[in-house]
């Protein structure tokens, strides 16, 4: 896949907290066990989820007051990103292009297809080492996540550098990060639609949490179709040459390592250990449903018998 080189980028909603070193340490923090392409990722996932759960619970009731946007410095990491050409040459600028495209897509689509009004995510915030969020302290290596409390998508970019690239090797996997960001953006849309409040059951393949995750994949597919087919005035699409293999690789990789933790507090806290995203096959299927049908209604994973 590649970006339309003429696309103009807007870095207004991008932030970078830099490297705190507070949690991850010089060695890059807790390694996710090897063998990610096989079953080993599951072990890593469980360990990571457990650590997150512990750090969340240890944070106690600080989530509502523990996040202070003003103390979050921005390193200026995205200032040089101007065009789609930059996005083709630079992973940071590719992130900007994807965010811009998601913003454009959902600012049109959400009001058109629902009674909810669109407000953008507050920010896509990149970090490494560790970061304080509206959902508590996040450590490095937790993977990308959306925090509904502050409506920020947090991306530890070493996740993509160290884990996904090593797993996939080489230039393949270009769609991994766009897919993950689109999935997290799907959680933001769910937050705006009030869908997150529907989640009552956490365990098992038919649980509400799985339905929530598969719906986020479906929403990612909705966006991907638009990004790959909507032409600008010059007849260019934002994302060209996206193949079925790109999609399959991205979803496989995200499934293998676990792509996000929704750090949501409800009542006594979410039992994150038992959360699951559904199988890779299910995720591809729902991504394709969103891609092919393009409607929020088609993505109703909560409908009886849908999941
Ligand atoms: Zn998710």
Tell me about this structure.
- It is a single chain.
- The protein is an alpha/beta fold.
- It has one domain.
- It contains 8 helices and 8 strands.
- It has helices spanning 40-58, 84-89, 91-113, 157-168, 176-193, 208-229, 244-257, 280-293; strands at residues 2-3, 14-19, 123-128, 130-133, 136-139, 145-147, 152-156, 239-240.
- The strands form 3 sheets. A 4-stranded mixed β-sheet has the order 2-3-7-6. A two-stranded antiparallel sheet has the order 1-8.
- The protein starts with a strand and ends in a 14-residue tail after the last helix.
- The model is unreliable at 21-71 and 261-274 (pLDDT under 50).
- Zinc ion (ZN) is lined by residues 183, 187, 213, 216, 260.
List the strand order in the largest sheet.
2-3-7-6
In DSSP terms, counting alpha (H) and pi (I) runs of 4 or more, how many helices?
A: 8
Q: Which secondary-structure class do the elements indicate?
A: alpha/beta
Number of strands: 8
* Low-confidence runs: 21-71, 261-274
Beta-sheet strand percentage?
A: 5-15%
